């Protein structure tokens, strides 16, 4: 029997393979799927493992403890196409936070809740993940019920919008507080006719943001009649909705928008009329997406603390994985108004920021 | 022994669990990790499986065949923060294409090549993936060598920029052809003084795009002296570089840019001078990122066919997984000039497009 190699570095699978004169894959099989090897080959590899004092990584040990160290996450429809979307940034933050805890993310495409549940079933039945992080929530959400019934560890970024028969851990951003702060911000700059551009009624997140605007208007005694409009998300929709408001006899001087895309649309409508965004008309968006710093002047927006939310999502789902009976945690996070040139003409231009 | 339930639907794990009066997780264990169950429990579950005629999904069968049906992919640094980046769109396309072939994507964070290799080692040693898709390539790329040496199936979106001792499958976009076509497009509209805004020398992709511009200038007899500048990627950098060129005695009337972010920066510099983009100065970017349709006028750009590339990446890596000795495939894809208002003032405004 040969002596262990005198190497200061920890022996690797590669060194074991060389020592046993087998391929890398054969060593991997010996450690993970020994039944695939001929008994004499297996014996030879295991002898090399012992000779070299090879120790599998933490991950490999975890595998034998039947944990996958993987969290499932549905791939977002946005995929960088919807420029105002926060999903890509959240996924990146989630992957980084998971890595810091020794976890990877299984990303899967799914088209709607039912399809996402089919993927849950697939991944769970294969034992391919330890738990899931959900993105977004809405009424009649069948996903949380499916996971809760089966005691699959999960956490949701997005609150339950109705009473559920079961409890689960979730985090959410307080949209109401966000538009309340945005409206106060515009009123503090002297605006009285503040419009709201929202999503169609029935969108839980959109209605929450609308309610925050209404609460601020009531608190500050601002008019809202004829100043609130709703439309689909998108720059073009924002332009059309804002144009209709600006055509009125008493047009608004400021706009609170349910999203950054809508707000950029408002900016286009204002510029089409030869007015200056920031100086003549103030605009504030929601999400502080990358869009906000692309336009000129830069767009004020309500920022969601995605990095910290992603980190907490990982912490919470790992808690459930470690102990499926651990207490449920729920948390509503306050967003922050980021003031830029679109609502504050004294703010430096975006080029000076970069 | 009870009769199978008369259900038109395929029996599910849940039905098996109910029938055997055990939890969902216990059924999953019986199928995937039978050694974790007490023999009598295992026997009860397997009887229920037989009674109901339960058939594991394709995925569960694959698990037993020792394939993971997972492809590894490094999470991009962009994460929606770099608004002109194509990584998010590629990842989405990759996940969709993988799903169509019954595969999921394991996304992992990594900070540089060495760290990415550490993640390869971790995932391969755990038997957690069947192969990898790499994004981006550069000289002295240690990742491809690591994977090739170990016969780990992979494909690279990004060509080898030097001769390697081993062969592997890759796809890439022809950046040279892209800027060549972009420069011809501007010259066809009558521009003679066409500037190029590039990345610092030594970036393989940047140098390739620069060479395409030079080739077009030579072909068309356009001047290039004093018309090419280089800087880091970003809107602010684009603005500063373009401002310096526009201050010259003989400023350019058109700009070919190495990225959309640089091109948006050029648009800002042009507007600062009270000139109209599209009418007075033409601008074209590269990548056709979401940025291109946010600005006004919309930005002309060179489009990479990411969806088709992602699909081919999945096809090629699955080929290697099925047969590690299968032939290596390499392919350079031609990008396409997408003309919009920034280089063609007759083009409809972005609002009309939406």
UniProtKB/TrEMBL annotation, chains A, B:
Domain of life: Bacteria
Positions of the HTH lacI-type domain: 11-65
InterPro entries on file: HTH_LacI, LacI/GalR-like_sensor, Lambda_DNA-bd_dom_sf, Peripla_BP_I
Keywords: DNA-binding, Transcription, Transcription regulation
GO MF annotations in UniProt: DNA-binding transcription factor activity; transcription cis-regulatory region binding
Protein name: Transcriptional regulator, LacI family
Native source species: Catenulispora acidiphila (strain DSM 44928 / JCM 14897 / NBRC 102108 / NRRL B-24433 / ID139908)
